[in-house]
User: Which sequence fits this backbone?
């Protein structure tokens, strides 16, 4: 029996090799390189490899390194010109030929990428010619439709199709995160119900974050309570080194969920990530008054310094958060009386 295309590619390692080969070319491509600001293409390389692994049905855990589930949503911030699309395909052609030996596999994959590139700019090129890729593409299109339904308020349609992805827990976490971010009661109820009936989802991640991080960031108290009852560590760190409390401090009006997390054992003064910021630093940055008040009440250190030596007050001043500045100055004054 002939191996699948994914097997012939070398499975997960082959996807990583293709992504590395492609982005090593992008680094020196004058038409494409401006699309990727910053010195490093490491994140883009990891994201593309994670997409390929997810698309081909590889290790589900790799989906946690994705930023977006929808291809169109992930590229919406770009204005892709025809010259850029063609340059992308040209570099991919070279990367495929560098990575794979079989000409028929190179041709099949290049046809798929050509079709997908047209989809990204809103054109319908039909399914890929290769039958295996055509089947996989139909599954991706169902995911595209689901994410579009969540974004556009088509809640019933989104809920009806969401269960199709329960076999991919990390993908499912990404779907549930989008539903929480939509902040609509029917979606929140669905998320809570699904976690209750599928508690193992609480152990998986998307974009490096757990469901508790997403529930905290969206101030979704019902879902956060379910997750905490399931035994999720309130101090679990995401891929950036930040806890759910930190995400709550930078999220929506979140005083209540801050109190819930701290009551469950969240460390008020945990500092993590590259910036070594505390939750109060994050509340100051985003002007989250209710979170700041709750953190102060629960013992947050007003004099904690981040990597740059800034206190929460200094952070609030630099982001011009007048209300937070007023609160911090008043609390400092009261403590010195």
Assistant:
């Amino acid at each position: 029996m002939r191996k699948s295309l994914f097997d012939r590619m070398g499975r997960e390692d082959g996807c990583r090799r293709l992504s590395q080969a492609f982005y090593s070319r992008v680094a020196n491509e004058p038409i494409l390189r401006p699309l990727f600001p910053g010195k490093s293409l490491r994140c883009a390389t990891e994201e593309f490899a994670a997409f390929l692994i997810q698309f081909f049905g590889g290790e589900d855990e790799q989906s946690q390194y994705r930023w977006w589930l929808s291809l169109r949503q992930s590229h919406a911030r770009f204005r892709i010109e025809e010259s850029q699309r063609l340059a992308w395909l040209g570099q991919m052609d070279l990367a495929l030929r560098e990575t794979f030996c079989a000409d028929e596999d190179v041709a099949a994959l290049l046809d798929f990428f050509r079709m997908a590139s047209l989809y990204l700019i809103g054109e319908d090129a039909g399914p890929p010619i290769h039958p295996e890729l055509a089947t996989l593409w139909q599954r991706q299109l169902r995911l595209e439709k689901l994410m579009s339904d969540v974004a556009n308020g088509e809640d019933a349609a989104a809920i009806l199709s969401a269960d199709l992805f329960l076999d991919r827990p990390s993908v499912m976490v990404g779907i549930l995160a989008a539903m929480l971010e939509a902040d609509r009661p029917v979606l929140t109820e669905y998320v809570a119900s699904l976690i209750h009936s599928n508690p193992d989802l609480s152990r998986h991640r998307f974009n490096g974050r757990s469901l508790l991080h997403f529930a905290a960031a969206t101030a979704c108290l019902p879902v956060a309570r379910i997750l905490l009852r399931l035994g999720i560590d309130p101090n679990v760190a995401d891929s950036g080194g930040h806890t759910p409390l930190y995400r709550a401090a930078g999220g929506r009006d979140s005083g209540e969920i801050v109190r819930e997390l701290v009551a469950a054992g969240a460390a008020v003064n945990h500092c993590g990530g590259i910036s070594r910021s505390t939750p109060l630093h994050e509340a100051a940055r985003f002007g989250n008054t209710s979170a700041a008040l709750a953190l102060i009440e629960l013992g947050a250190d007003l004099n904690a310094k981040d990597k740059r030596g800034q206190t929460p007050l200094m952070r609030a001043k630099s982001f011009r958060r007048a209300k937070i500045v007023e609160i911090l100055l008043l609390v400092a004054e009261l403590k010195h009386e």
